[in-house]
Amino acid sequence: MTAIYLTEPQSYLEADLRDFAIVYNDRIQSRHSIDTTQQIIAFEGCTLGRSAIAAIYRYRIRLSFIRDNGHITAQITPQETPFYTVLQQERNSDRNFRIAFIHSLLRGRWYNATKVLQSLGYSGIRECLEQQLEVLPGLNSWLALQTWQVQVFQRYQKALGSVLVSVKDFEPTLELAYALLSGELYVLLLSSGCCAEVGTLHLHCQNHLPLPCDLMEPFRPVVEAWVFEKAPKFSDRGGLSQSHRATFVQNWESLMATQIFHAYAGQVSLRSALAWQVEEYVRAITETLEYRPFLLKS
Known about the structure:
- It contains ten helices and twelve strands.
- Helices cover 49% and strands 18% of the residues.
- With 298 residues, it is an alpha/beta fold.
- A hairpin with a 3-residue loop joins strand 11 (259-262) and strand 12.
- It has two domains: 2-76, CATH 3.100.10.20; 85-286, Four Helix Bundle (Hemerythrin (Met), subunit A) (Up-down Bundle), CATH 1.20.120.
- The strands form four sheets. The chain has a four-stranded mixed sheet with strand order 1-5-7-8, with helices on one face. A four-stranded mixed sheet has the order 4-3-2-6. The chain has a two-stranded antiparallel ribbon with strand order 9-10.
């Protein structure tokens, strides 16, 4: 996927017939093919010219204005109704599909979280998460699953607090990373014909659309581990500073290109793993198959 990031305050985006151009101090800093651009992310203090806005509408490219803390202040998204919208709604009305899908998402999320705690040297994983995962298959209502999710999240936060100096210091950078992760999934879902507004685990979300928020659950621990490791390189007390935006984006793109082991796809980049999970979601709704979540290698 090709994304354009506007990071430098006072920089702006223009377009001609073929390319977008990032301009700073009246000089073109870089050019990007319109044909291969799938989303544009503009940080606070960056703007877009009329030619760029016209190209975004003409080619139906997602545009997000984002703050350093990850809060999305405005978006332009394609307005057409995706192909699978009605089918997604039908599947969500099927209780068996709904519960099974939520089980898969939560199993992936919290199984992968045990691997993050393991990598951080936390010794109480069995009591913190593994015992809770054993309870999960017996929960058969949306309310019970939501309650379980909240309780497990609280345990996870407490465990993180015992191995990190201050979890709160990482929150702004985590929110920014989650916003970029959600954006990656949004573009993949749209290109696959899925409606990002039809979620199952998340019916309404702040700062994200429901379906990307669903599918990103098993990937959150991967992003969290990355932030815990990399945040000191581009943040001040966990929050991104303007001078480090470009460094953050470079590191993010490196993360997306990182090779990981996917249980079903084999050795792939993290971005390809996201694409595989979107395809898996399409298979689940079109062929009524059980959704298989992304799981980190044991």
